[in-house]
Design a protein that fits this description.
The structure holds two protein chains of two kinds.
Chain A (H helix, E strand, L loop, with lengths): L6 H5 L6 H10 L5 H18 L5 H13 L2 H6 L11 H7 L5 H9 L1 H9 L23 H11 L6 H17 L9 H19 L4 H16 L6 H32 L7 E5 L3 H12 L5 E6 L6 H11 L2 E6 L3 H4 L5 E4 L3 E3 L4 E4 L2 H10 L4 E4 L5 E2 L28 H4 L14 E4 L6 E4 L2 E3 L7 H8 L1
Parallel strand pairs in A: 1-2, 1-4, 2-3, 4-7, 5-8, 7-10
Antiparallel strand pairs in A: 5-6, 6-9, 10-11
Chain B lengths: L1 H19 L6 H15 L5 H18 L4 H16 L7 H20 L1 H10 L6 E5 L4 H13 L2 E6 L7 H11 L3 E4 L4 H5 L4 E4 L3 E3 L4 E4 L2 H10 L4 E4 L5 E2 L28 H21 L15 H4 L5 E4 L6 E4 L2 E3 L1 H12 L2
Helix pairs in contact in B: 1-2, 1-3, 2-3, 2-4, 2-5, 3-4, 6-7
Amino acid sequence: MSPAPTLDIQIQPPPNGDLNHVGQQKSQKQMTKAERRELQEKQRAAKAAAKGGTANGINGKAPNNVKQGPTPSTSNAPAPKKGAKAPETPIRPRSQSVSRKDMKAASAAIPDASMEKARGLRIFAHFGLPKPVSAAKGEIHPTIVRLALQFANFKIAGANARCIATLTAFKTVIQDYTTPPNTTLSRHLMTHLSPQISHLVAARPMSVTMGNAIRQLKLEISGSDIDLPEQDAKDALCLKIDNYIRDRIIIAGQVIQETAGSKIKDGDVILTYARSSIVEKVLLGAHEDGRDFSVIVVDSRPMLEGKRLLSVLSTAGIQCTYLLLPALGSVINEVSMVLVGAHSIHSNGSVFSRAGTALVAMIAKQHSVPVVVCCETYKYSEGVQLDSFTKNELAPIGDLFSSFPLTKPREALTLENRPNLEILNPLYDLTPPTSITAVVTEVGVIPPNSISSIPVALGRLL
Amino acid sequence: MAGSQENADSDVCATYQRIIQDEQLSPPLAAILTLTESIVKSNAGTMFELVQALNDAAKVLKKQIPNSISLNAGCELFIAFVTLFPHESDSFAELKTELVQQGQKYAAEAISFRDKIAEATLGFIKDDSVILTHSYSRVVMKALLHAHKTKRISVFVTEARPRGLGLKTHEALTAAGIPCTVVLDSAVAYVMDRVDFVMVGSEAVVESGGLINAVGSNQMAIIAKAANKPFYALAESYKFHRLFPLSQYDLPTHNPTILSFAALQRRPTPPDKFSHDTVASGQSVARDGISETGIAPPPTEMKMTTEQMSRNPSVDYTRPDLISLVFSDVGILTPEGVSQYLVGMFAG
């Protein structure tokens, strides 16, 4: 597919200026048709640059834009200019005020438009984009709305953090819920929770941890006693949620901290990648136990999460080295163990984790350095994933020098995307089981090829 | 109080030493029997106290007995059994006798595990097989002698320094009429192309599916892999151990002395070393004069000192990907199967 036309780039106004343009256009309704078209094309090009990810700016502007031009004809007119059509797609699902006629026009443009959106990297179009929170459908609890915003802005990013935050928010939702007449809590509560869940998922694709926790919650809700007074049933559910957080996340973390910590010996050099809450705990725990070791924190753009780990570890008094991924090769020979966290773990033993982990694991394997993954069993996913391509997310596009979490609004950062330049930042990658030595879980240290026996182990636990 | 504690400690060790005298019993079984005896002797009044007493006894054994890995496997197995034992008996004394009986019954049954394994290996030993084994292992001996009844086999066995237990294997096999040759530990690669498969016993089988065995097994497995020969490990199920070594140095037997370099202050004493060297070179000159072809026995001066010996490991760890199959009384397992069995066995 040919890249977008170059002319658009030259006339492309900065997206920040979009609002001004809108204002101008409104005031210039009396222009000639040709002038108007030219202006509109400019505007479209600007939005093409701003692309799908851009937020409410487009959202608010959309109706104006649509109202202005003779919609069906103009949207076909710039057909040869492929890049120009991109904006249609982001507009379509979001703006609810678009008239039916406009909708038709937009949908006519879909096949073309969705192709355009991906430009040169069309094959990555399916990756979940970090997207702004859409307008709420149905009753969304304020806590959920806030949480969705935090998810979308990567204020809460880790698998554990997201799961705990979700469950805690659900506790509030459950407490504020009243069963409507002529139905029971066990049958109706889930229909009340479903839109909340989809609202969260709209903000960011659901993590495996959240999926597992929500499945458990559904099970508990459907199993709750019909005859129980409402408040008691709600309290019981909240208790179940608390127990889940305690048993599967907090206590599991402590057990892993102990087990993995015992693998750290005096004089060891531990290498870790990016930042995992559980790895942080393991390292701090081993340090508290008086083990004398040093840590190499490997990090990479765009999120530079390792910086935070670095500051925590060095504050605790652990000797640290910080380097970026390209420098890994020069230090790997000094490393005695690689310790990484996980987003989820699959039944074939592959580990889905922050993009770059696979690279670290493979290099370590090549140098016979043991690779140990710390992972609670609730991150276990029955599914099998064969590559990091079929399912992935896109990381927020980070500024080169900004720290994480993002300090600038995301719209400002999308500046880096240009019509013939697409920035691709997959959030996760898949580490094959062959490059993993062991997975430390709360049920013990398990070799990756026996991960499928986790449910067996848990069956005994429950 | 401290005195009585010490007394009890030495008592546990003495019991263990007495039990291990039995040629048939391997360390894990001896450990189980020792612990059953300590149940008999203990005056614990509750389950909690009993388990604690057992843990203490196990700790003492681990500390006092060198090379504690397989012993530890037995202790863990028995303590897990005691903890999970359903106590339906009315009185605690009854429960205790019940536990002791169960322990002894298990140990008695466990002796027959080796026959089961020997039977299992039979299908993998073809007539006219040439087998390479390492050191001395009761279960391998049983398997070889069992196979000898129906099939013609010949065996290469390594010398297995420093304890030289390979000679023991050689003696027993020759006595049984099996052709057997002792090879040097350093000749494993030389002999590998002539053998059909490698069969070794084990100190413990660990959670990764790997193997802990007398030092030299690992290199044997690596060479077998390189030569595409199957590497079979024989292990009774009480040797399955909940341990996950990440490397050789992650084994519980590893200590700072192993592989350490001699202290530097030894260097500035050249006279001693110098005279040592001259003696050695003198010897070699003399030997060269005598014969070029035959390998003369090493002169006594060339032997390793005890101090040098102590810098060497007694066991090593073999990675699961080097092992073809693990034969045990619970079945013939792949290394992955072992780890799945272990995860299932010890979970919860």
